[in-house]
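User: Show me a protein chain along with its predicted structure.
Assistant: Here is one chain, sequence first, then structure tokens.
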Amino acid sequence: MEIFILLSLALFSDAMVMDEKVKSGIELDTVSANCNYDAHYKDHTKYWCRGYFRNSCNIVALTPNSTNRVVLKDTGSQLIITVSCLVKEDTGWYWCGIQRDFARDDMDFTQLIVTDNGDGRATGFSPGPSGNRNLSCRTSKAIQKAEGSRMSILIICILITGLWIIFIVSHLSREMRSQRNRGVTGKSITRSSQPSQAPSVVSIPLATI
């Protein structure tokens, strides 16, 4: 009976419904999306993906996991997606989806528009002081930038060390070849400087007949 109900829901109902089709956000701020679904799917995996077409969107996060900026919360009847530290590049189309066993995944979409000024503020934002969020995002970006700089310096140091080792090995190899060549040349000269001993000729007087 339960399988029949699930099949009926898959064929004749929308299991996942987005709360709003357009959401606006401000850079460095936070935006939330609520996707309601039938309680029969509370144990199914839900996800948040990005892309204009549902069949080719790129999954950003899957329940129960989250990322540094995308947090997923599954209440059993609603999937809450929270995206923090917004940047303009986040502008685009997004889908919330639910994985189903007997039919293709049910999905619903929203369009996110990120602006760089206060005029873009609209529904869908999590409450809280923007100043604190902005400071947190800037601090996080500064830390990431510092870590990237340290990694670049480390890579440069490794490359320089590798080049120096190669130079030392090449120099030592040339020195060894040079010493071997000098040794061979010295032996040749020593051999050639020794006087050649010609066989002594003994003159034998001819007997007079």
